[in-house]
Amino acid sequence: MSTTPPLQSTTASATPPRLFDCREAYAQALEAMAEADQRVCAVVNDSVSSAKLKNFGARFPGRFVNVGIAEQNMIGVGAGLANGGMVPYVCGASCFLTARAMEQIKVDLGYSNSNVKLCGMSSGMAYGQLGPTHHSIEDLAWTRIIPNLSVVVPADPLETAAAMHYSLEHVGPMFLRISRMPVREVHAKDFQFTLGKAPVLREGDDVTLMANGVLVSRALDAAESLASIGIHARVLNMSSMKPMDADAVLHAARTTRGIVTAEEALAAGGLGGAVAELLALHHPARMRILGVPGVFAPTGSAEFLLQHFGLTAEGIHNAAVDLLRESK
Questions:
Q1: Cα separation of 119 and 40, whole Å?
Q2: CATH number of the structural domain spanning residue 71
Q3: Per-residue pLDDT reduced to its tens digit, 258-293
């Protein structure tokens, strides 16, 4: 492992995988849930199209509230609906939903333990060309420190739908970070979401790759490339960021030579920070934390931005090789 070979495409000779917008899976699940349960309602901050709620509003006008561009009020309306026995899904661009309404999320949802589900749409750097004001790379660091608030970052449309259905049965506030960047399916059709569990998508005993959201499929591609040079990488889908699967993380630290985390968010405070905190207390291990390195992300397409920060299969591959070289 003295040099890092270039990453080879795992689909060059095969039909490219079908890609999906997870917002479609979320919207379909929300409508199905509303049809089956009269308590389900939606609250939106004017971004009806971005939140994929046009059809929901047409089908369930009596359970659809558009508060306009007033995110703080939106959270309060959601909390009030929950107090009245409804199960509100408060949906809006993650950059505005979390940043503008953090005090209300903290007090009205976390402190009050309100049964409100937050759907942070178009998260990460999906609004690439709109620049730093629309990047939502701080939301995981912010939301995971709020007591009582669960945080879920689905990896594909199957998990998005499964997490939505799970959220209806879960009592208490939850933040679901929904991506708009196209991703392929990484789970089987019969996948069942369980809060606090990290599905093992690939076994390996050399290094563990942990990712969530759009980075999961890229971690799988990195594991495939690593296998071509004799490195066996375990891949964990850390979609349940809070509560986190502590057993899976500690098992990885004990049975592999290091851990690489990857997320479409700030490298500080999110998934990498949560894993590092756990390991520091219980089983220190070598790590590489991939994310946006404490800067405002520039303006550009979402794909450009992921490439710019090394949040790619090649970037994950190289981080794993570098970590293992250090552990010799």
A1: 14
A2: 3.40.50.970
A3: 999 999 999 999 999 999 999 999 999 999 999 999
